[in-house]
Structures are given as C-alpha cells and as structure tokens.
Amino acid sequence: MTRDGQLGMQPPLSLYVHLPWCVRKCPYCDFNSYTAGDSAQRDRYLDALLADIEAEADRADGRELISIFLGGGTPSLFTPQQIAKLIDAVDDIFAMAADIEVTMEANPGTVECGDPVGYRQAGVNRLSIGAQSFDPEALTALGRIHKVGDIERSVTEAHEAGFNNINVDLMYGLPGQAVAAAILDIDRAVELEPQHLSWYELTLEPGTVFHARPPAGLPSEEQRFEMQSRGQERLARLGYEQYEVSAHTQDSWRSAHNMNYWSFGDYLAVGAGAHGKISVAEGIWRYAKPANPKQYMQSIESGEYSPELRAVSEADRVFEFMLNVLRLTGGFEEELFTARTGLSVDVLRKRMEPSIGRGLIEAADDHSWRATPLGRRFLNELQAEFLPE
CATH topology for 314-389? Predict the structure, then answer.
C-alpha cells in the first residue's frame, strides 16, 4: 500500500511517434498534421526523430516498451527504409517486450498506402487503415482522396504481406448518410476480414474546416444514435466484440497501445506535437513537444530544447483516469485506480456517488465499475462530472 498521493508500481510503458504530414488535410481533422513537404524535409525530420528517441531513453528508466504507435498525419508517406531506421533505433535504445505491438497508420490512397511488404519487414506488425467509408459520395464529402477500390486493395495487400493484425477505421454520422448506409459500411469492411474495427462518429472539432463551415445534410442526433446502436448490434452478430466506445475486435485482437491509454498507463512522446505521460513515485507528469514541425526540428537540432514537465494534480488524476477508463465497456477495477493514481478507493467512491445515483455508473462486481448503457450514450457529460471543481 502506498501513501495517499504517491504511486507504487509503475504502469506499462508505450511509445508514440508522430509523423505529421498528409497529402491533403481533411476538413474534419483536428490532429497536428500538415500538407506533405518534399523528401529532404522528411529526411531532416527523421534525423530529428532519431535524436528525440535517444533523448527519451532516460525517461524510460529501463522500463520495457509494450507498444509503439506511429501516428500522424500519414506515416505511410515515409518509406519502409525510413520506418525501419526508426524502429531499429528504438530497438537499440529501449528494452522491448517480446510480444511488442508496433502499429502504423496508413491511408488507402495509391500515394498514401506505401509498401505493406516493406513495412512488415521493417518491424511493423499492426496496420491501421483509414478507410472511413465505402460510399464514394461520403468519401468526397469528407475530403478523402482515395477511392473505394483503394480500400479493398490496401487491406488485401496487407493480408498478403503477412499482417495478421489489421484495423480498419470507419466513421458514421456523415453528411447525407442514412442509417442503412452506415450499416452497409460495416458489412463492406467485415468482408475484408480485418481483425479490428474502429467505428466512431464524425464530430465537428474546434479548429477544423467542418467546425467553421458545417457540411450540409448531417444526420440528426436521433439518427446518429440509431446508427450507433444498430451498428454495435451488427458488429456483435458478425463476431466483433466491443471492448471500448469505438473499438471492436475479433478473436481478442485488442489494441495494446490504446488499452494502455484507456487504462491510464504511461507513454513516451516523440515527434512534433507528441504528448507524453510519466509516473514516478512522487507523482505523475505530462509533457509535450513543439507542435510545428519546423520548430520541432530546430529545437532538436539546437540541442537546447527540453520539454517542460507539468505535474498532474490529485484532482486532475481523478478526472484523467475516469476520462479514459469510462470508455471501456468492461469497466475497471478499484485497485487499478489506486495503482495508477496513488489515491485511495474512498476518493474514487465519493466522486462516483452522484453518477451512480443518476444511473450512469454501475458496479460490474464487488470491486469494479463501468458506465451503464445510459452513461455510455451520454459519455461526454458523464466524463465532465469528474472535472476538478
């Protein structure tokens, strides 16, 4: 048992690497991404990443990595040789779990998909393909540059390259989309036999083109809820278990990297705009790298940059923990709260009382909790109840 506010055993550790360029930025995207630069710029960025990886070694403090996630942007704009150089550098510097999950995001377009065989040989063992929809009109409305045939080709080529852990991203609540069309997207995706499906609602995030100028024909709240409910039922019938709000898996191919996030684990940050979280006996710290790629590269090259660490207060620990674990359909155990936050179970129970009383949180068993179906429907409001006063 630890003193209240102090942490005991350190949580699992992951590594996030941000590769920020896309061929074109989508109007709904609020990620830290930019229109693709020339190859020299990407070579320079890779050199900065390698230096950044080395600088992160001290933060790991000898702990092994359970997962690596290459996100973006569109990481598949980098060549297999560049990705291999990146993964080799991580392998040289860090201890890595024998069953480490190495995910790379890729888009299905001809320019964006890259070489699945090369990426598999480079050390990537999980591919996440951003399909979004199988409706040509929906793809156009979303500003995607790939075609439906590109999705089918990219997933097929990933299977042929030896990937046995493939995720397909789908969105619902799209401009002009009917409920039947959203369900058809699921059927089309499942025909390609991915092990994992991420199925999430289109949201108009601040700072995006869609937030400033919402597209016409967005489904109503009732239609979106029907899409969500019927889609979850369809995925369950097709053998995909829902283990998180937007994550569905076949044969237990859960994302180790995302599970670490949702369980309030630790992660190192490499790349422009990457965010990290580290737990030590004295507390929990967050940090971030410069968001602009040019500023990021300059800061690394100058050798003068050191990210500022921000302590996570005890009140924020409760909020951040609940923000993540309430997404898990199976819920969480009380001892996980104590282990990851350093706070007593009494703190947790007191903060949950109003939500339990409103039927938004329920006991999964004697020592674990989960959001109720009503709580999951209004998850944003439920999570907000744990904001520090």
Answer: Arc Repressor Mutant, subunit A (1.10.10)
